[in-house]
Amino acid sequence: MTQNAPSKAVKKLFIKTYGCQMNVYDSQRMAEAMGAEGYVLTEDQADADMVLLNTCHIREKAAEKLYSDLGRLKPLKAEKPDLKIGVAGCVAQAEGEEIVRRMPLVDLVVGPQTYHRLPAMVRGEAPRIVTDFPEEDKFDHLPERRATRRAPAAFLTVQEGCDKFCAFCVVPYTRGAEVSRPVDRILREARDLVDRGVREITLLGQNVNGWHGAGEGGEWGFGRLIRALAEVPGLDRIRYTTSHPNDMADDLIEAHRDIPALMPYLHLPVQSGSDRILKAMNRKHTADQYLRLIDRIRDARPDILLTSDFIVGFPGETDQDHADTLRLVEQVGFGTAFSFKYSPRPGTPAYDRPEVEGNVSDARLQELQALLTRQQKAAQQSMVGRTLGVLFEKPGRIQGQMVGKSDYLHSVFVEAPDAQVGDLVQVRIVESAPNSLRGELA
Ligand code: 5AD
Ligand code: SF4
After folding, report:
1. pLDDT, tens digit, for every residue of 215-239?
2. Domain extents for the chain?
3. Is residue 169 part of an annotated ligand binding site?
4. What are phi and psi of 13, to 5 degrees?
5. What is the pTM of this model?
6. CATH number listed for the domain at residues 387-441
């Protein structure tokens, strides 16, 4: 007599992603790699067979946040002893063994350059902690891109690591030296994404515009890569992040002038408006050089929306330095920007430098953020009355409503009962809300 074989239960994977878009992409790729092992994603941590925390180390309290999240997993692990707990990302890279020493409930620790080994680690065929910088390219060992979730906008990593060594930043240590992925792999991944319904790709890299590689006719820069991607049929929109001002080559600026698929949006961190502080930060450019660069970019694409990152309270920052930052912000007029209070990161050159008093930094941060919020409001308000392309990414909470991104990356809510996710439509903007726009089908 034959018995029905017990159906092999699907295993469920819960991933929590901290930090940057690079990590969002890495989480997707890890989910795909684990998909090949029979894991499907769940949104419910309590229901998971495996919990993976994909960490970020760039600012303060990253490790503390990880340890407190791990502490909160203790009851779940006690209830489900087979639950696997993994730590990935830059804190995994930086802390390594310390994580399992402090939190023995952690089953595996995997760095950003080795996550292709995650399936083998889960099967017990690789060490419990893998945080080296391997010779092999992890992308060669990951499964082909498959639809884990149908979405019309996707990330694609083209470059990793950073050689710039800004004095405050851990990235050169956690993500390692700059590496560019080869042209053919990038084009193939882009075509695969388009084949599964993607219409917008955001190219990712810690220093994305430093990308270079051998292509047809010789060495290509990032602008040339964008030109090649713009020729992929069905790829309607291209974005990229994050860029360094010193790598904004002429070819890339010209791409902003010539290529309609390259969206009029650029995130270009400047960090400070004071030459003294920029020098102490090892940024290798002055405020004036940044301003002249912005002029050239705006000559090429007058409507481009610029965003940036700022650090306030960097060691040695005076009131005058802070005033210089505010002046630069006034001069540029940003669409939005991220601003952070400086936090000393162990192992970075600025770590031991005397800190600015906490309440001084807090006050400066408030002042800068108030100015940036005013600029964000003005930029959004300037969209009202204009007709813009919007790519619908998901249904809104209200019946018949769709939410998408405009060319300028604003979220736009639109009444569109007959529309589908993935439609790219013309929308007339009618209202600006604090963090989004409202529009009507044009
Ligand atoms: N303290 C505060 N902000 C930091 N950033 C990077 N390192 C630090 C630090 N030690 C910010 C920078 C960078 C962004 C990703 O995070 O502004 O551009
Ligand atoms: Fe960090 Fe500077 Fe490299 Fe950006 S450019 S990742 S801030 S070291």
Report:
1. 999 999 999 999 999 999 999 999 9
2. 11-130, 138-381, 387-441
3. yes
4. -115, 125
5. 0.90
6. 2.40.50.140
